[in-house]
Amino acid sequence: MTDFVKDSIALLREMVRVPSESFSEAAVADLVFGRLSEWGLAPELVGKNVIARNSNFNEELPTLVLDAHIDTVPPARGYTRDPFDPGEDTGVVYGLGSNDDGGSVAAITAVFRYFYNRELPFNLVLALSAEEEKSGPGGAVMLYGPDGPSAVRDADWVIVGEPTGMKAATSERGLLVLDGTARGVSGHSARSEGVNALYIALDDILALRFHKFSKISSRMGSVRLNVTQIACGTAHNVIPDTCSFVVDIRPTDCYSNSEILEELQSVCTSTLVPRNLRNSSSATYDGSPLVKAVESIGLETFSSLTTSNWMRTGKDAIKLGPGDSSRSHRADEYILCSEIEEAVEKYILLIENFYGNSLE
């Protein structure tokens, strides 16, 4: 097992050296595919995604997927070191994507190798996906969609690797982004002519700020809403005829994104247009064997504020991985090798305790 972990951490260091921003991650996919091939895991490239099935894969058995993503965001401002240099410290891996989501990639790859030739009462599939950071169509959307490989598309359960400090998220909020547009009539400000679109927008923003959704989720609490951007005006002496603003909403399992849009539009004069309605909230199924296994080994559970591939799977799932979410998308990202080692141990224990729960 130690060799598996060492190999995976070495792979992570190689991955950091390869720029892999969403939609431009083909090179890192080739790198991962090559290493998995060297290790005898018979991987497949599906677009820019890498998948592998355990050696005893049997279509008649249910399937558990180990999922993580290989793409990154662009480097944040403020790096004090090269974001593509993993460093020489043997106890730390630095650099862009090391924490999000390279630590999970390293850990679940080592775990997959550990179980690769073992007889299990279910199939084990490794899915390392592209385009997660931008919710692109060529990543998990494709893998878990109707045209995805059957081993992933028809899976029963998913462990989504993300930096959670190895606490198990049994639910996560969705994401709904609305572009608001207030429309008025332009005029000369000296004569106070026209209809000021900025004032219309401000009234609507105030209504949104204090709007209360009546349904409270027992897992996630209230829907969260923040107006995060506003743009308006062409000159100091012109009454603006349009004003645009952006609303960031984190839904719960009590509402569909369409329901939230309809409710908010009813309190606004401005037109609200969703960027998409697909990023819904997620939660483990009632009586989930994943939750039973998590509880049996004493892992802490929580509700996650951030989205992940989970919302693309449509499966019974949990989100669980090494690292700290607060390091993600920030300068000087890093992950401790000890965090990856600990994650491997806990993943193995979880899967071993999944035996008795998965087929009940």
Order of helices and strands: HHEEEEHEHHEEEEHEEEHEEHEHEEH
Q: Let me know the average pLDDT.
A: 95
Helix content: 25-40%
Structural class: alpha/beta
Strand content: 15-25%
N→C terminal distance = 30 Å
Rg on CA atoms, Å: 23 Å
Per the principal axes of the C-alpha atoms, what is the gross shape? globular
Query: Which ranges are low-confidence, i.e. pLDDT below 50, for 5 or more consecutive residues?
Result: none
Largest sheet: spatial strand order: 1-2-5-3-6-16
Assembly state here? single chain
Quick one: how many beta strands?
17
Largest sheet: 6 strands, mixed
Number of helices: 10
Provide a descriptive summary of the structure in words.
The protein has helices at residues 2-16, 26-38, 98-115, 140-143, 150-153, 197-209, 257-265, 289-296, 310-313, 337-358, and strands spanning 44-46, 49-53, 63-69, 92-94, 123-129, 157-160, 168-172, 176-183, 187-188, 224-232, 238-239, 242-250, 271-274, 282-283, 301-304, 316-319, 334-336. With 360 residues, the chain is α/β, with parallel strands linked by helices. The longest helix has 22 residues, at 337-358. The mean pLDDT is 95. The strands form 5 sheets. A 6-stranded mixed β-sheet has the order 1-2-5-3-6-16, covered by helices on one side. The protein has a 4-stranded antiparallel β-sheet with strand order 10-12-8-13.
